[in-house]
Every structure is written in structure tokens, then in C-alpha cells.
Design goal:
It is a single chain. By secondary structure, the chain is α/β, with parallel strands linked by helices. It folds into four domains: 59 residues, no CATH class; 162 residues, Substrate Binding Domain Of Dnak, Chain:A, Domain 2; 150 residues, Rossmann fold (3-Layer(aba) Sandwich); 238 residues, Rossmann fold (3-Layer(aba) Sandwich). It has 26 helices and 16 strands. Helix 5 runs parallel beside helix 11, helix 12 packs across helix 14 and helix 18 crosses helix 23.
């Protein structure tokens, strides 16, 4: 086979037919799929975590000939230290997102963010009740001021307490475990600072101590994510079921096409409003209107609250522009490929960056400000309208593929669905189904895309296998993006892929909520963006509390079949600390140390009840998840029978 033919085959690293259609054409610029091939073979030292670049005596690479770095650091120190720093990157990214939401609410309280308002006073009051903040006889703004103050303290506290968002959202058993292991953060900023110092050259060399610090960092990630989700719901509304479509077929060549990409909803929510207000300007320019679409988690945010259709997810983010029909792509933060600008220049798309810490050379930069949010959103729309005029009669080649999507399953929505069957104790609808064996378990599917595996394939293989085996599948982030594009967020997928137990469970929810839903329910329940993983963890906590046990004893697991980012490492680490079996389909850089790898796969289970499952084959990954669920269900049943026999409470410890 010639090199050209081999490259053509290898380049098609996706199962999304729309992506494959674009890649089949002769393109004027490279894509991420091409750049992945150009990087082969990748460095095995970095891949296994035994390359150290913390000081500039290095890089030091651990081999049989050189088993220690220049300073004397061994493989286990280097791998553990790198793991902490990866988790730090993830925790910092999610917390930076939630900090921005928090500061916007603070600005709103001070009168400096006039375009924002409280969209869900009910969620605000629920948060206040959680923290024993008085609500009776107080205005929403007074309550919000106390909530914001508490959030700021969880970011900045130096001494005299621990993170309140963790203390008030986990089971008593988890809280005790975190305290016993001394991994409960004082605050987000304090942990990020102390962990960075701890991993400096000449600091901590103890791998176990470093791993405990990595878990503290991961809990900061959970803390920041939870604040971000809670306050986004207050600011933009709690998601409820929405019905739309996904994939390249949502692009309309007759309209001004604008893609919103990134993770932070502060600007994208304003862009949705601005697009509605300026639709007439687009029509005056000769367009049929404005078509918004989402990419990555900004796409998830506006999907679940505004019904904006997703066009694609992380790995294929460059390709919508290659249709020739995307007039502007506005980006905020995280998972934004620098290669976007090169593609944009070839296809007359305007890349608009909006964050001081996420700029791209040669892009159109708008210095986003909460004080001028709607005004700046309108500026974005007008840039896109001008770009549409420049597009003129240029050829647009748009894959027609699109799938039906039902999204917007916040925890409140889930409990609302359950409550139609059991209003007094909604979660019992789920726990009763788990106890009876109708459902085999619950699995959160999250994470990114990664060119090391076939794009979207691992997500869909795992989800289909779990659904066939009567597992209730939840999804966030780019996993949810895969399911949206390929039809797993549709009602039709229930008949096609669900086992009898799962199908009966979903149909029962549909029947009980027929007067509330616009249509039927999907196979996979979309819970939001990657910052919203705490919604699923809150469900796990509710299940555990209802069953009277701690999280490590419930049939609930997590899976990131195409994990890519530092955020995935942070999320996976707190999932393990929370007590969940956590499948990862792309092995992170820890295998260079048998000690660190062994802690992740085995010893973590002994301490926390959760553990990692490295499995790159998605079918085998699904099998291992099912084994973990079945073991927990069996053990839970035995505990319940024993408790009933001796008229005692079920064991809650781990």
C-alpha cells in the first residue's frame, strides 16, 4: 500500500458519517486527524509518565540504564508528581469557569452586570436551604448575596474551615473518609497553591503522599464544578427536557451560521438572546435568518437550556467550517484547538475569541465584559452577518446527517420525572428498580474525544452494551455530544438498543409524565456539560442515602471511554475518591510506575471503595463495568438480607 493510500485510511479515525464525508474530500488544510498521524510514533516516556520536566536540568527520562532523574527522583516520584500536576490543570480549568460565573453574580449584585438576572429563584432557595441560609422574608438578591459570599469563601479560605460545597453535598461516610485521609480541601485556591508548591523540584518525593494530594486537588475540581453548575442554574435556569437535532445537517446554507464553542455559558447565553433580537438584520442582509449551533460544552450549555442544536464535539471541531457555510465561530475557554484559525482562513469563517486567557493569533478578539454582555453579543452577531455577506454564492458542501435529540436532564428534572410516580420519595423509583433487578445499575458516561481511539466509537460501543444490559446511562460533555450526533439521545434508540428492564423503566416514566413531556424519553439521559458531572454524583449520593449505605456499595459507575484532557484526570480521580468504579478507555500516563498504577487500580479500592479500570477495548470495558455493577448489586442484596435477618441497619462503612 502506498503512503498516500495508507494515510487516507488512517486519517478516517471517526465513525461519525458526517465527519467521514468531510474528510473524504480534498481539503486545503490539515485537520487534527492529520496532525495525529504526523506525531507518530509518540514519545513512550511521556506516554507512561516517566519524563520529568519540572526543573530545567532535564528533561529526565527513566530507563533501566538511568533509573533516577538527575536530582535522584525515581519513577514513582516522577509519575505521582506528574499526576498531581495533571489534576491541578483540570481543577484549575473547571474552577476558573465557576469563578467567572461567581464573579458575574457578584457584579450583578453590585449593579455592574445589567444584562443578567436570576432565572431560577427556586434553585437559589434550594441552595440556600442546603447551607442553612435564611430565606424567609428576604429578597432573592439578599439570599444571593449570602450564597455568593459562601462561594467566594470556598475559593479563598486559607484557614479555619473546609470546603462547604463538599461538606453539604456528599454522604456522611464520604465526608468522614475525606477527613480521615486529610484530603478535604480548605479552599480551591489554597489547595491549588499548596499542591503546586508540593510538586516543585526538591519538594515531596513520597508517591503515596503525592497521590493523597492529587485526590485533594480532585475534590477541589468537584467543588469548583458544583459551584459552577449550581450558580449557572440560578443565572440561566434549571435545564428541562428540550427536543432538537444534532450533527452537520443542522447547518443551513441559507442562514447566517454561527457556532458557539468552549465551556462557559456567560457569553453564549447572551448570543442566543442577541440572535433572536437581530434576526431581522440577518434577513435584511439577504439571509433566511440566523442559525446557532453548539460545539463542545458551550454547545451542551445552550442545548439544555435553549434548545440550540449541537453540530459536533471536540475532535471534529474544525470540520464544520470546511462545509463553507459557517460564518463565525465564537469561542470562550477550554478545548479550543489553535488550529481553528488556519482552517477559518481557508473557508472565510471569522474566529472570535472572547477571553483574555484563551486567545488565538490572528483571530478577531472581543474583550468580553459582564457590563457590556448583550452589546458585545450583538457585535458578534453583526460580525457573522458581515461574514455571510462576504460568503456570497460560494459553494457550501454540507453533510445531510442529523439525529433527533432529547436533552436537558438536570437532577431536578430527573426527580420531577420520578416524582410523577412517587411524589413523596422520587429517588425510590430508581432505587426500587435497582433493588428489583429491573435495572442493573447506573453509569455516568463522560469525557472528551481522543485521536488514540476511533472518534465516537468507544463512547457508543460502551453505551449500547450497557443499555442492552439494562443499565441507565447518563451522559455529559463530549460523550453526550457523540450520543447526540449518532442518535442515542433519541426516543427511537430505546426500541433499538435498550434491554427489556431499561425499556420498561423508561416507558413507565413516559406514561407517568405524558402530560408534561413534549415527546418520548431518550435512551441516554443528557445531564449537561463536563462541569455538570456533579449532577450525576448528586444522584449517586441520593441513591446511597436512600439505601442507607455509602456510595461504594451502590451499583453506580463512571466511564470515560475517550478521555483526553487534564480535566478528565481530575474528574476521574474524584469519582474514585467518591467510591465509584471508573472506567477509562485511554490509559493515562501512570503505567511507568508499578506502584502508582497499582494504587490507581487496586489500593484505591481498599481505601475509598472506588478504583480505576484501564481498558482500551470498549466492549471489554463495558464487560468490566457490568462486572463491577453486578458485584455491588449482589453485595448490597446480601447486606440487606442480613440486616433484615438480624433486625439491624445495613453496614454503611467501607
Amino acid at each position: 500500500m502506498s503512503d498516500a493510500k495508507k494515510k487516507a485510511v488512517d486519517r478516517n479515525r471517526s465513525i461519525d458519517p458526517a465527519v467521514l464525508e468531510v474528510l473524504s474530500r480534498e481539503l486545503p488544510t490539515e485537520t487534527t486527524y492529520d496532525r495525529y498521524l504526523a506525531q507518530q510514533p509518540q514519545c513512550k516516556f511521556g506516554d507512561t509518565g516517566i519524563c520529568c520536566r519540572i526543573c530545567i536540568q532535564g528533561p529526565c527520562r527513566i530507563t533501566a540504564k538511568a533509573p533516577k532523574g538527575i536530582c535522584g527522583a525515581t519513577a514513582y516520584t516522577i509519575v505521582a508528581r506528574n499526576l498531581v500536576r495533571s489534576a491541578l490543570g483540570g481543577a484549575a480549568a473547571h474552577s476558573d469557569h465557576s469563578k467567572h460565573i461567581l464573579l458575574t453574580l457578584k457584579a450583578m449584585l453590585e449593579g455592574h452586570a445589567p444584562d443578567y438576572s436570576i432565572k431560577s429563584p427556586e434553585k437559589l432557595k434550594a441552595i440556600a436551604v442546603r447551607f442553612n441560609i435564611a430565606t424567609e422574608g428576604r429578597s432573592d438578591l439578599e439570599i444571593l448575596a449570602d450564597v455568593v459570599k459562601l462561594g467566594l469563601e470556598d475559593f479563598t479560605r486559607m484557614t479555619g474551615g473546609k470546603s462547604k460545597w463538599i461538606e453539604k453535598t456528599v454522604t456522611p461516610g464520604r465526608l468522614q473518609k475525606f477527613s480521615d485521609c486529610d484530603i478535604l480541601p480548605t479552599s480551591i485556591f489554597e489547595t491549588i497553591a499548596s499542591a503546586t508548591a508540593q510538586t516543585h523540584m526538591g519538594m515531596d518525593a513520597d508517591p503515596v503522599n503525592l497521590i493523597f494530594k492529587a485526590l485533594e486537588v480532585a475534590l477541589c475540581d468537584y467543588n469548583g464544578m458544583h459551584i459552577g453548575t449550581d450558580l449557572s442554574d440560578v443565572l440561566f435556569g434549571v435545564p428541562i427536557p428540550v427536543y432538537t437535532e444534532a450533527n452537520f445537517g443542522v447547518i443551513d446554507p441559507a442562514k447566517v451560521n454561527i457556532a458557539v464553542h468552549g465551556h462557559n455559558p456567560l457569553l453564549s447565553e447572551m448570543i442566543v438572546q442577541a440572535a433572536r433580537e437581530l434576526d431581522s438584520e440577518a434577513k435584511a442582509a439577504g439571509a433566511a435568518g440566523i442559525q446557532l449551533m453548539g460545539i463542545c460544552c458551550t454547545g451542551n450549555e445552550v442545548l439544555m437550556r435553549q434548545g440550540v442544536p449541537p453540530v459536533t464535539n471536540f475532535l471534529s471541531q474544525e470540520l464544520p467550517m470546511m462545509t463553507g457555510a459557517i460564518d463565525a465561530m465564537v469561542v470562550d475557554v477550554q478545548c479550543i484547538m489553535p488550529g481553528l484559525q488556519t482552517v477559518a482562513e481557508c473557508f472565510n469563517t471569522k474566529i472570535i475569541t472572547t477571553s483574555k486567557n484563551a486567545k488565538i493569533p490572528s483571530s478577531h478578539y472581543i474583550d468580553y465584559s459582564e457590563e457590556k454582555a448583550l452589546e458585545q453579543a450583538k457585535q458578534v452577531i453583526r460580525i457573522a452577518i458581515d461574514s455571510y455577506k462576504e460568503r456570497g454564492d460560494a459553494e457550501c458542501i454540507i453533510p445531510s446527517m442529523k439525529s433527533k435529540v432529547v436533552a436537558g436532564f438536570s437532577l431536578e428534572t430527573m426527580f420531577g420525572l420520578f416524582g410523577a410516580i412517587n411524589a413523596d420519595a422520587p429517588v425510590k423509583v430508581l432505587t426500587d428498580s435497582l433493588k428489583s433487578g429491573e435495572l442493573r445499575g447506573v453509569v455516568l458516561m463522560a469525557g472528551c474525544n481522543n485521536t488514540k481511539v476511533m472518534h465516537d466509537e468507544s463512547h457508543t460501543v460502551v453505551a449500547k452494551e450497557l443499555a442492552k444490559n439494562n443499565v441507565l446511562v447518563l451522559a455529559t460533555g463530549c460523550a453526550a455530544g457523540s450520543f447526540a450526533k449518532l442518535g442515542l439521545l433519541s426516543p427511537e434508540a430505546v426500541d433499538q438498543y435498550a434491554g427489556d428492564g431499561l425499556k420498561a423503566f423508561i416507558r413507565r416514566l413516559e406514561e407517568a409524565n405524558a402530560d408534561k413531556l413534549e415527546g418520548k424519553l431518550p435512551l441516554v439521559f443528557h445531564m449537561g456539560s463536563c462541569v455538570d458531572n456533579t449532577r450525576a454524583m448528586n444522584l449517586a449520593t441520593a441513591i446511597a442515602n436512600d439505601l442507607g449505605v455509602d456510595v461504594p456499595k451502590i451499583p453506580f459507575a463512571a466511564s470515560a471511554p475517550e478521555a483526553m484532557s487534564e480535566k478528565a484526570i481530575a474528574i476521574g480521580s474524584w469519582c474514585v475518591a467518591m467510591g465509584l468504579p471508573t472506567h477509562v478507555g485511554v490509559v493515562p500516563p501512570v503505567t511507568g510506575s508499578e506502584l502508582v498504577n497499582g494504587i490507581a487500580l487496586q489500593i484505591a479500592h481498599d481505601v475509598y471503595g472506588g478504583f480505576f479500570i484501564w481498558e482500551t477495548d470498549p466492549s471489554k470495558g463495558a464487560e468490566k463495568i457490568l462486572e463491577a455493577l453486578d458485584y455491588r448489586s449482589w453485595k448490597l442484596k446480601i447486606h440487606a438480607q442480613t440486616a433484615e435477618k438480624f433486625e439491624a441497619s445495613a453496614s454503611t462503612g467501607w
